[in-house]
Amino acid sequence: MKELFSLASRQLGRKKLRVFLIVLGIAIGIAAVIGVTSLGEGIRVQAVEQIKAQHDLTTIDVSAGVEAGSVTLITDSKLRAIEKEEHVLFVASYVKDMYVTQNKTAFWLKGNTPEYRQIHRNLQLERGNWFDEEKESNEIVLGYDVAKRLAAIEDLGIGDEFVAKIRLYDEDSRPMDKTRDKTAVFKIVGILKSTGGEHDDEALVEIATAREMDEKDAYDGAFVKVDDPAFAASVGDKIEGLGLSARSAQDVIDEVNKLMVAVTIVFGVFSGFSLVVGALMVVNTMIISVYERTKEIGLSKALGASDFDIMKMFLAECVIIGVIGGILGDLLGIGFSMLIDLVGKPFLVSALGGELGAGLQTGSITVVTPEILAAGFAISLVLSIVSGLYPARRAARLNPLDALRQI
After folding, report:
1. What pLDDT is stored for residue 53 in this prediction?
2. How many DSSP H helices and E strands does the chain contain?
3. Would you call 65 helix, strand, or coil by DSSP?
4. For residue 155, which of 163, 166, 143, 147 has the smallest C-alpha distance?
5. Sign of torsion over alpha carbons 283, 285, 286, 288
6. Which of 41, 116, 145, 204 could make an SS bond with 367 (beta carbons 3.0 to 4.6 A apart)?
7. Contacting residues for 288 by C-beta, under 8 A, at least 6 apart
8. pTM for the complete prediction?
9. What is the DSSP letter of 242?
10. What is the chain's alpha carbon radius of gyration, rounded to the nearest angstrom?
C-alpha cells in the first residue's frame, strides 16, 4: 500500500499545474458548501439561543384540545391529573375575559393563582401592592397600558374603585342577552411595570373572583412547571394524552431546528453544484492520463499486473487528490465563513432588524463545527474516488497487446 501511494504521488508530481487546478476546483466547491452550511448553522444557533433566553424551557403552555370538531376543556379533574404526573412541580391555571368599563374602556381581565406569578417572573410592580391571594376580593392590579388608558380616559389611579362588566357568551360563542351581562366593582391596588408583552394590556385579579364572574366550569388555559427541561416533552405528551393541547419552548426550538436544517440542505445542494466542475476536472485529467500512460499500462500488464492492480494505481491518485482537496477546502471554508461573518453580519443585522437583528449583533452568524469540516473532507474524498472510477476502469480494460504496439 505504501509503494502504491508512493508511485501515485510521483505520477501526480509530473503534472503539478494540472493537479493544482483540480485540487483548487474541488477545494473551492468544498469551501462554498462549508461557508453556506456554517451560515445556516450559525443562524440556527442564534435563533435557538434567543428562544432559550426569552422562554422558560421548564414551562408548558396548556390550552383546550380540539380534535375532529370535539373540544376538550381544561377542568379541575384534568388539572388534578396533570399535577399527579411525575416531574410536575405545580400547575398555574387562569381564566381570561374581556371587560368594559362604564366609559367603554375595554381591557382583558385575567384571574390567576399564586403559582402564575412564579412562572411569569417578569411581572413586577411599578406602584402599589398585589391583591390578597389568600381570599376572594375585588382588588385588581393593572397592566402598564391598561393603567395608562384608565388614567387618561377615566382619571383612575391606585386606591380608586370602578365598575366594569363582562359580556357572557353561549356555547356557540354567540353573545348572550345583554340583560345577563354581569357587573363588578374593582379596587385598583397596584400597577405593573411594562413587560413589552401581552401583560401590559391585561389586568390581574384573584382567580376565584374571575371565575365567579365568568360562570364557566373550565379554565381558559394553564401553565405546567416541570423540574427539568429534559422532561418537558414527555410531560407534554401525557398532557396531550388527556385530550388537551400542550406547547413548550422546546417545541419551538424543534421547529426552528427542522426549518434551518431544511434551509441549510437546500443552500448546500445549490452551492454544491460547484463541485460538479471539480468532478469533471478529475474525470478529464484521469482520462488524459490514461492516454498518456498507455505504453506504461501495457508494459505493466505484460509483466503480470492485473486489471485490479491498474485500477488501484489510478484510484490511489484520486485518493491523494481528494485528501489534498478536502484539507484545502476545509481551510478555505473556514476563511470563507470568517469573511461571511465579517462582511455579511452588518447587512443581516440591518436587514432583519427587531429582536432577531439585535440578537445577531452579540454573536457570530456562522458556526463551523467539526462535523461540518469532516463532512467537507469526506465529500472531497468520495467525489474524487467516484470521479476516477471510470478512467481507472478504462485503464484496467486496455488490451496489453494494443498498448505495447505503441512502444
Report:
1. 76
2. 15, 12
3. strand
4. 147
5. positive
6. 41
7. none
8. 0.67
9. T
10. 35
